[in-house]
Each structure stands twice: as structure tokens, then as C-alpha cells.
Amino acid sequence: MKLLFHCCCAPCATACVEDLRGEGLEPELFWYNPNIHPYIEYKSRLQALVQFAAANGLRMETADEYGLRFFIRTVFHEMDNTKARCELCYRVRLEKTASFAAEKGFGSFCTSLLVSPYQNHDAVRAVGEEAAAKYGVEFLYRDFRPRFRDGQARARSLGLYMQKYCGCIFSEEERYLKQ
Predict the structure, then answer these.
(1) What's the whole-number mean pLDDT along residues 103-129?
(2) Which domains does the chain show, CATH number per domain?
């Protein structure tokens, strides 16, 4: 079964890819993250994923669309406040992944969002399953969270770029407001 693996970033992908390979699956990485801002952050994360893929002999597809205006318009059009933005963000990215998987003949897809203890795991799973049903592909659910710290350590040992926030401008703002 061909597996398309949506990656939010290289550090989150490391342990997930190890686990999937341990199951005998060979994921093909997929980059689509219009939520990541500013542009230099977007490019840094994309370059780190390209580096990770090359170092690990992984194929990679990109829907390289820097999406500041799209993301902001979507967030404010779809909801009255930014509190529900994360689920909307999951939906945008996982629907694109499911659509791409169906179009390119992948039998299933998964996401590195399932590794982070900072993401709403249940919402990621629900959105992934909805996108799978909508596009006629399987959502391969895995709870990668127990491997989060291992993946971060592995990314550091590989010298991969390590971000400080989930990626959207709202999470960056929250990061600074907490200081």
C-alpha cells in the first residue's frame, strides 16, 4: 500500500518515519502547510524537510504554496474568532493531503501532526478520517505521541532546523505574549 505522509516539519517527521518503516511501510513525504508564517519560517521548515528526506532516502512531494493571505482569509471567513483555528488548519492541510493521495494513487495517508503533544490529537484524527472518507482513501491513524521527545532528539542530532511554535502567526503571537 502506498502511503502519503503529510509533514508539518522535519522534527515531527523523524520518529514517525522510523515507526512507519518499522512496520514495513515506506512513506512518501508530503509538504503542504499554508499556515506557516512568516515566509522565512516557511522556507526554513521546508528546507529542513528536504534535508531530512534526502538524508533518509525518502521520496517527497510538495504543494509549495506560501499561504499567508489564504490562511488569514480562511481563518477569519470561517469563524468568528481565532480560538477554533487549529481544527480549521488541520482540515485545510489534511483535505489537501487526502485529495493529493487520491489523485496520485496512494491507498492511504497519515500525518506527523499525530506526534505532537501540543496538537489536539482527537481533532487531527477526526479531521483525517473525514478527509479520507471525502476523497476515498484510508487515513492511517497512529498515536506517535510517545515518540515525540525521541523525534526531537533525533532532529537535533541531525542538525535539523528546530522551530519554536506550531507555525501560524497566532501561535507565534501567543508565544510572545506568554513571555
Answers:
(1) 96
(2) 3-178 (3.40.50.620)
